[in-house]
User: Which sequence fits this backbone?
């Protein structure tokens, strides 16, 4: 499994890549592997301002549907429209083509509350 060091991770298995005052958010390699084949991603929160840990969408796999939780508070600026026709991108490349939302953070200090790759790996019992 892959857990890039340049990302931050939430207890709900989302990752965050900080780009200035914006955050790109998706689900981790571990989360997609636990879910199995992802067949549908529904995110209808574009333009909304959401609190940390609020549900921003759902991901549907063959065996389950799972909520997606905001790792930081902010306004959803963009949703990855490619996931409508290619939800399998989340399985194939969760950290690049499988990103889910771009958020303008309202409190960038919340990033400091997220986990490093090493801490996330400890949480899920992998490696280190």
Assistant:
């Amino acid at each position: 499994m892959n857990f890039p060091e340049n990302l931050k991770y939430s207890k709900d298995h989302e990752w965050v890549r900080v780009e200035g005052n914006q955050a790109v958010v998706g689900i981790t390699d571990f989360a997609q592997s636990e879910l199995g084949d992802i067949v549908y991603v529904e995110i209808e929160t574009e333009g909304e301002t959401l609190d940390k840990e609020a549900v921003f969408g759902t991901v549907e796999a063959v065996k389950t549907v799972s909520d997606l939780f905001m790792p930081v508070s902010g306004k959803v600026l963009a949703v990855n429209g490619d996931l409508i026709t290619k939800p399998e991108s989340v399985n194939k490349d969760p950290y690049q083509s499988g990103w889910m939302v771009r958020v303008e953070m309202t409190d960038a200090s919340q990033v400091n509350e997220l986990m490093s790759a090493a801490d996330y790996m400890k949480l899920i019992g992998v490696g280190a």
Summary: DSSP finds four helices and nine strands in the chain. The beta strands are 8-9, 14-19, 22-27, 38-42, 49-50, 55-61, 65-69, 74-79, 101-105. The chain has a mean pLDDT of 96. The first helix runs from residue 29 to 35.
